[in-house]
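Customer escalation, tier 2.

The customer says the design service returned an amino acid string that "doesn't look like it belongs to this structure." They asked us to rerun it and document both sides in this ticket. The original structure tokens are below, unchanged.
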């Protein structure tokens, strides 16, 4: 977990979208989520894309560098990710997040 002191959630009903649009650098999600936590926001959302927004890597890293903000995977595709890998992703990120992780599943890509 992050070594810095974190504000309590002043705005738990507010969230933001990590790596909105076309992301140049995946690591930008970490500075974004830390800044949002400092502002007192309640939740960070991620929409999965295979080029720079791989769900397990980004959500796990975001959870590991924060203490209070919720981390939400908006949608992971049930057609392209094996169910055992999806369950493993959810279990590990939930463990890293200490119960702050929420995962949405759906048919995110046209196949």
């Amino acid at each position: 977990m992050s070594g810095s002191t974190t504000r309590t959630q002043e705005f738990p009903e507010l969230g933001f979208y990590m790596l909105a649009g076309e992301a140049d650098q995946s690591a930008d999600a970490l500075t974004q989520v830390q800044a949002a936590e400092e502002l007192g926001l309640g939740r960070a959302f991620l929409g999965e894309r295979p080029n720079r927004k791989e769900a397990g890597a980004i959500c796990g890293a975001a959870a590991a560098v924060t203490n209070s903000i919720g981390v939400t995977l908006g949608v992971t595709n049930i057609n392209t990710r094996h169910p055992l890998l999806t369950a493993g992703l959810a279990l590990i990120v939930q463990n890293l997040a200490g119960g702050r992780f929420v995962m949405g599943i759906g048919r995110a890509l046209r196949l």
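Tier 2 assessment: The sequence is consistent with the input. Strands lie at 11-17, 41-47, 70-77, 101-106. The CA atoms of residues 18 and 29 lie 6 Å apart. Sent an explanation to the customer and offered a walkthrough call.
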